[in-house]
Amino acid sequence: MTKSNEYTDSSRATVNRRSFLKGSGAVAAATALHSPAVEAEPQAAANVVSGATTITLNVNGGDHKVTVEPRTTLLEALRSQLELTGAKPVSSDGSSGASTVLVDGKPVMASTTLAMAVTGKNIETVESLGGEDTDAVPRAFVKHDAQQCGFCTPGFVVAVRALLNKNPDATESQIRQGLNGNICRCGTYNNIIKAALDVVKGGV
Ligand code: FES
Question: Is residue 152 in contact with ligand 1, taking CB distance under 6 Å?
């Protein structure tokens, strides 16, 4: 084989490989265009939200408009836009329990819940337990001096309310177990348990 032939053969081989790859790509593209997964993509893309969006949150029985980004937490929306500062930003991972609120009656950490994820749901904050007709749980906390710095207190109050809504006759053991997602750095646990048990007994 001459040098010239080698070049020619090599070029042909290159062209042939390129042609083959281009052809394969075209086939793959043609196949992909007709695959259900790709056809579904434009629909999925239409549901992607980016940037600031105004949504409605139902908080403490009323609808409120807030402007949030996809990354905005419920805690940020409550505190920064609705001025409901009872839930506290103690732990961004929710491990302290200080940001506890109720969503459709269930306790959740507002610090780890995206605001957009709770549109159409009933959100209740600790503020809903105060006012003229103060709930028995915060009254019991006052009666039993169940707080020191108070930073954990709103989370505990909401957690106790959720627990007793579910089990009004909770025992001390059940209360201790039910509150194990909330942390008090000041160590007021005994008085918190006393307060919760007093509510169970109807003492407040
Ligand atoms: S009262 Fe201070 S953290 Fe609980």
Answer: yes
**Domain boundaries of the chain, sorted by first residue:** 3-46, 53-200
Residue 94 has a pLDDT of 93
pLDDT band per the 50, 70, 90 thresholds, residue 48? confident
* Domain 53-200 bears CATH identifier 3.10.20.30: yes
Compute CA distances 155 → 6, 101, 184, whole Å. Answer: 80, 7, 10
| Residue 45, pLDDT score | 53
Q: Is the ipTM of this complex over 0.95?
A: yes
147 CA closest ligand 1 atom index:
1
The CB of 147 under 6 Å from ligand 1? The reply is yes
Pocket probe for ligand 1: among 141, 186, 193, the residue whose CB has the most ligand atoms within 8 Å is 186
